[in-house]
## 1
Amino acid sequence: MAPTLYMFHGSPPVRAVLMTAKAIDLELDIKEIDFLNREQLKPHFLKMNPQHTVPTLVDDDGFTIWDSHAIMVYLVAKYAKNDSLYPKDLKKRAIIDQRLHFESGVVFATLRNIAKPIIFDGATTTVKQKDKDAVTQIYEFLESFLDGKEWVAGDAISIADFSLVSSISSLNVLISIPQKCPNLMAWLKRCESLPECEVNKRGVKEFTGLLRSKISKK
């Protein structure tokens, strides 16, 4: 019996989990919820996940976990044929963990601060300058992380790439990656060429559709 993933395609964290599952050849039982109409706040979902977030994973034995980073680590540890996406090597894993924390605490937090008011609160103004500056700094950090490397945590792809590409491709809809970040632009193209990234492309398209009529990109 396949693990069940409660999800919404427009969500970057959901896409990160879907890419991870694809990379380890794991079939998931997909349960798409009506996130925009707040299905996640209904009693049946709150009983499963009091934080009412997606993605939420329910394994075949009933074990339930949420947060994309925790889910990706769990799936790789339990279902992957090897540890290449999240190596047991202490130093390699530490770098991946740092990138994952950077994604959750900086990148996705910034994306959420910009997108949530637009999607849920009816904000229709363009992105504020302080938010543009924050996104530009994120791009510059990643440009530095990728200096001399093909992937964000080194020379091999990892779950950190899946996590970051989901958010960066979404931020790029709002504020384009500048030409002064060639490492980042090349990394994004490498990610987009991966078969795992097809699910991300669908999600970015849905995310873009949510924003297109509500904000002007500058």
Note: Strands lie at 4-7, 29-32, 56-58, 64-66.
## 2
Amino acid sequence: MVKARKYVVKNHFKGVPKREDFELVEYELPPLKNGEILIKTEWLSVDPYQRAYNTKNKVPYDQFGFQVGVVQESKDPKFPVGTKVVTHKGWCDYTIAKDGVASGPVNNVYALPDLKGLSPSLGVGAVGMPGATAYFGFLEICKPKAGETVVVTGAAGAVGSLVGQIAKIKGCKVIGFAGSDDKVEWLEKELGFDKALNYKTVDIAKALKEAAPNGVDCYYDNVGGEISSIIINQMNTHGRVAVCGSISSYNDDVAKMPKATILQPALVFQQLTVRGFLVWEWYSRWQEGFSQIVDWIKSGQLKTREHVTEGFDNIFDAFIGMLAGENTGKAVVKV
């Protein structure tokens, strides 16, 4: 029998998640049934959506999330012992999984993509769900054209940093907003953003007007809030907005959501297209995106950075740090 540990969410979060909202449970895994595999976790992901979906789940629940692990025992010929796999089994050190491809991506198990020698941790980052979110959300919704101006918020995060680089690959001018001067420097000097701005210290409307005097064509929105209203109000006719998330409000009380400047005048007079999305929409094409992203990384066109926390016992700290914006690039946990 294998002893396993997992994080169980006991409460619906009120504001910033608290340590006492989680319980670390140790338990014994049952013997494998046909079609099942035993996985030892190597890398875990902490992501904003884990906060956003908290109130949509009945408590208690096992904390979900993507992980990369290695098969220790198998009763599924598709995944022999030693295979590295990606699952959505969340914050646990060992788990039993069964490929539920028919019931959707959250229950699916897939072999870690061919990373051509890159770190397996990318399977929960640039070559995982965040990479697919950047790749498909930007290219399919914004449909960028060379020479256009693209703005990205949350630009130094797991998704935003990839969106900006993909936009550069497609020949666009890229402006990113981030929350520290160090992140601004990284975006400009290492990732090649044309301009990066610290939203905490600049006059957002004025700084954006200076950076994009001819207006904005595409906006990839990771944060929501007033900054998004300001950006949308500076968009060009037939501009496109991909709404990925709203991390600026995830810790706010649902009954006291922040207010922002209305968008309807800009949407109407500039004839804008605004579309929210969930990355599962393109799940059948994820591997297509992963292959392209790996090629871009290997060729040097796309750079990845990870904020690594070590230790299963430190997952909560990694989660809270990510929500506070302490990470540059993808926040991951090495188990």
Note: The two ends are 20 Å apart (CA to CA).
